[in-house]
Design a protein that fits this description.
heterodimer; A: 417 residues; alpha/beta; D-Amino Acid Oxidase, Chain A, domain 2; 2 domains; 8-stranded mixed beta sheet; 6-stranded mixed beta sheet; 29% helix; B: 99 residues; alpha+beta; Folate-binding fold; two-stranded antiparallel ribbon; 2 helices; globular; binds flavin-adenine dinucleotide; binds zinc ion; nucleotide binding (chain A); Sarcosine oxidase subunit beta (chain A); FAD (chain A); SoxB (chain A)
Chain lengths: 417, 99
């Protein structure tokens, strides 16, 4: 059993030049069989394993990862966390996650650097403002903090924002969610890994699932690059690769995998103490604790698994950001990368049982699943442990694509995230 | 950045001239009213989304504005070729309509 981190341990290890820290989690060899296997060691998969162990008493769990832990979208996203979605189903699911975020550092004993610096969604047209008012009202009815701000108030709170009336898309106002913010993405994966490992969860990296053993409509095990692993319950949490895994089980998914790019600038003095997003201009930005601008925009339109996108998307993103923040025109970008996001027709996730007994999927989070990480793992663990969805993910069943009960969140998902 | 060949214009042009049209050759059911909800949902929403060779449509938005078919590898972005819809259909069928 690993010791908890504390101020005292930081202090004493500091005196010894930070030598003597133990690895945060155990690197495990695959066993022949498990009670539950989770495919994908991103934030969502690790959170699922953690809540399965902590809340549902499942002990014999493995998390299989084809690459390294947290090397997928968990490490590639721009870390925006908020819950101001339009429809009850989505808003309540993301709010469930936001409540868990608020206690996550204590719960995991790992500093996930959750910073509730607020999130602005700008409105640039009268229709934008009507949509914002509708969404804010819907949020308030669901008990979610949200307010409408006019342009003068937005300018007061974000002095560097271009609110000039002569802007091509003038800022008319914004919705503001004070409890929204950002978190340290790597720390989320590491924190869940460490906490799950404490409960005895086997985290197995460099282990790609290549096939599924299905007999009489039930899952019996997985073929992997590190041998066969038996399990009668398997949860797939593979983001951009979900269609590839579903195909192994003969299941078709309403998912298309697209590259989504992000950019980080050189470090600068603090200029932006909140998160600003704009659907109409189509870009968003925040500033990391290290002082870097963290910038993103829309997906590349074609499907791809290449984890890189096309350069003209960079140009469009830069144009959008400069429209909002002209003073960033001299900022140099240090890094740029892409992740593969699993988009669905209604911009909402799929957290579902499947026609194969014992096989579950948690995917379709597309451009905006980081904010849901603890909530997603929490309700998916329930779904697997009870073989029955949690009330909060019942509406996110695969069946909605034949019943027609889509949850259209394209407005709130807007600019990616 | 892709450089795509438009079989209608007979020219290679940069990606920005084109719009992505998604998976190619999804036939609209001849008698929609005869389908159950699952089959209709499958037609509307389910996609192959393969990691590998993909037959897909592109439209030449700022050129001739016509659709055509491209066979592209989604794992590498390698492009095997472009065809008009009719010619592409033949090539696709000759492969057995796979992937
Ligand atoms: C550029 C970018 C910006 C984003 N910004 C935001 C944001 O600001 N806010 C927000 O809420 N969301 C954002 N997102 C979305 C968010 O990152 C994802 O929705 C979320 O990280 C998905 O979580 P995950 O744990 O399922 O995915 P991942 O971390 O991708 O984990 C899936 C894992 O499955 C593994 N895997 C796949 N196939 C197999 C296999 N066959 N066998 C074994 N393992 C396999 C992968 O290697 C991967 O590690 C952004 C995404 C990108 C790309
Ligand atoms: Zn043309």
């Amino acid at each position: 059993m690993r010791k908890d981190y504390s101020s005292w341990s930081l202090f004493t290890k500091g005196l010894r030049h930070n030598e003597g820290w133990n690895p945060a989690w155990r690197s495990a060899e695959p066993k022949p069989s498990y009670d539950v296997v989770i495919v994908g060691a991103g934030g969502h998969g690790l959170a699922t394993a953690y809540y399965l162990a902590k809340d549902h008493g499942v002990r014999n769990i493995a998390v299989l990862e084809k690459g390294y832990l947290g090397g997928g979208n968990t490490a590639r996203n721009t870390t925006i966390v908020r819950s101001n979605y339009l429809w009850d189903e989505a808003a309540l699911l993301y709010e469930h996650a936001l409540k868990l975020w608020e206690g996550l550092t204590e719960d995991l004993n790992f500093n996930v650097m959750f910073s509730q610096r607020g999130v602005f969604n700008l409105g640039h047209t009268l229709q934008d403002m009507r949509d914002i008012e509708r969404r804010v009202n819907a949020n308030n009815l669901d008990g979610i903090d949200a307010m409408v701000l006019d342009a003068a108030e937005v300018k007061r709170r974000i002095p560097i924002l271009n609110t000039s009336k002569s802007a091509r898309y003038p800022v008319l106002g914004a919705s503001f969610q004070p409890r929204g913010g950002v978190a340290r993405h790597d720390a989320v994966a590491w924190g869940f890994a460490r906490a799950a490992s404490k409960y005895g969860v086997d985290i197995i990296e460099n282990c790609e699932v290549t096939g599924m053993d299905i007999a009489n409509g039930r899952i019996a095990g997985l073929e992997t690059t590190r041998g066969t692993i038996r399990s009668e319950r398997v949860g797939c949490v593979a983001s951009g690769h979900s269609s590839v895994l579903a195909k192994m089980a003969g299941i078709r998914m309403p998912i298309e995998s697209h590259p989504l790019q992000a950019f980080v600038s050189e470090s600068m003095k603090p200029v932006l103490d909140t998160v600003v997003m704009s659907n109409a201009v189509h870009g968003y930005a925040s500033q990391s604790d290290k002082g870097e601008l963290v910038i993103g925009a829309g997906i590349d339109h074609y499907t791809s698994y290449t984890q890189r996108g096309s350069p003209h998307i960079i140009e469009h993103t830069a144009a959008a950001i400069l429209e909002l923040f002209p003073m960033f025109s001299r900022a140099r970008m240090n890094r740029q990368w892409g992740g593969i996001v699993d988009t669905t027709p209604d911009a909402c996730p799929i957290i579902s049982k499947t026609k194969v007994k014992g096989l579950y999927f948690n995917c379709g989070w597309g451009t905006g699943g980081f904010k849901a990480t603890p909530g997603s793992g929490n309700v998916f663990a329930h779904t697997i442990a009870r073989d029955d969805p949690h009330p909060l993910n019942r509406a996110f069943d695969l069946a909605r694509f034949s019943t027609g009960h889509l949850i259209d969140e394209h407005g709130a998902a807007g600019v990616a995230h | 950045m892709f450089v795509l060949f438009c079989p209608h214009c007979g020219e290679k042009r940069e990606e920005e001239e084109f719009g992505y049209g998604g998976e190619a050759f999804i036939p609209r059911p001849a008698t929609p009213e005869a389908l159950d909800d699952e089959a209709w949902g499958d037609y509307l929403f389910m996609r192959k989304n393969p990691k590998g060779w993909h037959w897909e449509m592109w439209s030449h938005n700022t050129g001739c504005r016509k659709f055509f078919v491209v066979k592209r590898n989604t794992a590498t972005n390698a492009i095997a070729g472009s065809w008009t819809l009719a010619e592409g259909r033949k090539a696709y069928d000759a492969e057995g309509g796979s992937t």
